[in-house]
């Protein structure tokens, strides 16, 4: 997962691994260079930088022959808020159609907050039913058939099945927040 959000104190020592096929990579932490390290085949396409964690931004800049060939940024997420979206708002009855409701903890900029998991409760009303709910947590004891789960790395997913023509309302609640998405079922 590409993130610079960790549940550790500022100042904690960290090793940052950068992978790429360029000649070299420069790593910037909050705009300050941590140095340049060789990459490529002879270095097993990997460079390691030692630093300390601090909330902010990391930018890796890859170069070949002194020319920038790519860059990738990681940012620390802000306060976690509940976001909910559905893969499609219209379902068809009788063809085994399902809707996948994506549940995420994200900051105001839409950046996933993977280090502050929390419980979510899903309620489905109208012309559909909750078929399953889970988070892909490998060590969970929570049932995928229940209406509640705990996010894993800031995510969970609910699967909704249509039962009749009409409207479906899916409400997700977590941490004092509530979000609703609407679905329509056609014959």
TrEMBL record:
Organism superkingdom:
Bacteria
Q: Where is the Glycoside hydrolase family domain?
A: 82-176
Q: Which keywords fit this entry according to its UniProt record?
A: Glycosidase, Hydrolase
Carries keyword Coiled coil? no
Recorded hits in Gene3D superfamilies, A to Z, give: Immunoglobulins
Q: Which GO terms describe its molecular function?
A: hydrolase activity, acting on glycosyl bonds
The cross-references to Pfam families, in alphabetical order and at most eight, read:
DUF4982 (PF16355), Glyco_hydro2_C5 (PF18565)
Q: Does the keyword Amino-acid biosynthesis apply?
A: no
- Which residue range or ranges hold the DUF4982 domain? 11-69
Q: InterPro entries annotated for this entry?
A: DUF4982, GH2_Domain-Containing, Glyco_hydro2_dom5, Ig-like_fold
- Set out the biological process GO terms recorded for this chain's protein: carbohydrate metabolic process
Entries under PANTHER family matching the protein: BETA-GALACTOSIDASE, BETA-MANNOSIDASE
Family as reported in the entry's similarity comment: Belongs to the glycosyl hydrolase 2 family.
Its recorded name reads Glycoside hydrolase family 2 domain-containing protein
């Amino acid at each position: 997962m590409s993130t610079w959000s960790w549940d550790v104190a500022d100042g904690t020592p960290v090793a940052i691994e950068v992978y790429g096929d360029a000649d070299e990579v420069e790593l910037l932490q909050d705009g300050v260079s941590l140095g340049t390290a060789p990459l490529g085949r002879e270095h097993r396409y990997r460079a390691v930088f030692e630093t300390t964690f601090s909330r902010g931004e990391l930018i890796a800049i890859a170069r070949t022959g002194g020319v920038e060939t790519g860059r990738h940024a990681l940012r620390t997420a802000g306060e976690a808020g509940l976001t909910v979206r559905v893969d499609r708002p219209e379902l068809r009855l009788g063809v085994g159609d399902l809707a996948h409701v994506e549940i995420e903890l994200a900051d105001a900029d839409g950046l996933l907050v993977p280090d502050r998991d929390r419980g979510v409760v899903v309620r489905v009303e109208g012309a559909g039913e909750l078929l399953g709910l889970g988070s892909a947590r490998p060590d969970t004891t929570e049932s995928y058939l229940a209406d509640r789960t705990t996010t894993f790395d800031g995510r969970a997913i609910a699967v909704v099945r249509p039962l009749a023509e009409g409207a479906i309302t899916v409400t997700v609640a977590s941490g004092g927040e509530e979000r609703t998405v609407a679905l329509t079922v056609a014959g």
